[in-house]
Amino acid sequence: MSSNSESFEKILWMSSKEAAEYLGVSLQTLYRFIDNGSLPAYQMGRVIRLKYSDVLAFIEQMRIGPGTLNSVLSHSDKV
Question: Are 19 and 55 in contact (CB under 8 A)?
Fold first, then answer.
C-alpha cells in the first residue's frame, strides 16, 4: 500500500437520516429504495451509510423524461 494518501478517492458518506432528508422522503421510503436495489447502501456494523455520489446518481435516475407522464395524466389534465 502506498503512503501517498492522495492516491485514494475520498468518499463522502451520509447517514440514512441525512440521505432521507436530502431526498425529501421518509426513512421508510429510503429503506424501500435500498431494499429494492434502486439506491446502493452499505452496512457497517449496525449502521447503514450511503455514498453522497450514489445519492446524486439516484436523483438523476429518477428524472422524468418528456412525454413519460401520459399514462399518469387523465385526459382532462392535459393541456
Answer: yes
Cβ atoms 55, 23 nearer than 8 A: yes
What's the CATH code, domain 10-61? Answer: 3.90.105
Domain ranges of the chain: 10-61
List the end-to-end C-alpha distance of the chain, in Å, as a whole number: 61
* 64, 70, 73, 74: CA torsion to nearest 10: 180
Provide φ and ψ at 28, rounded to 5°. Answer: -60, -45
Q: Kindly report, residue by residue over 6-44, the tens digit of the pLDDT.
A: 688 899 999 999 999 999 999 999 999 999 999 999 999
45: left (phi over 0), alpha (psi -120 to 50) or beta: left
Helix (H, G, I), strand (E, B) or coil at 75: coil
